[in-house]
Amino acid sequence: MIELAAPYPAIQTVTLLPNPQFGDGEAQSCEVATRRAMDGTLYTYVKSKAGRRRLMLPLGLSRMKALELRVFIQSYFASPIRLTDHLGQVWIGHFTSNPFEFSTPKRAGSWPGGEMQIIQLEFEGVKQ
Fold first, then answer.
1. Which domain holds residue 80?
2. How many domains does the chain have?
3. Under 8 Å CB-to-CB from 2, ≥6 apart: which residues?
């Protein structure tokens, strides 16, 4: 389970989400730039972001859970968020994807609320 709690550190709301569909992706968020001087000397610059990393979480949610996540995002988008991922690691950071796009690949058959919605959450933060 993924736990989203906001605003950090005075937690008011907690939302539980299922595990990512195909696992999560984690990447360093630093950038490397190379520049060549006029005399041919190669210089490399590293733009560090103080240990921040980017998490990519592809989630498959029911219609009701997607509506709950949408309200959570609208309420706490600009606030720091504590994310506890499915591996038990705690992260403090912000959502970086904008806009948040929910796609609906599976429609409800006979009962309301049976739709399946997919969202790709991008979260950038520091592991605690």
1. 2-127
2. 1
3. 16, 17, 18, 19, 20, 57, 59, 83, 84, 85, 86
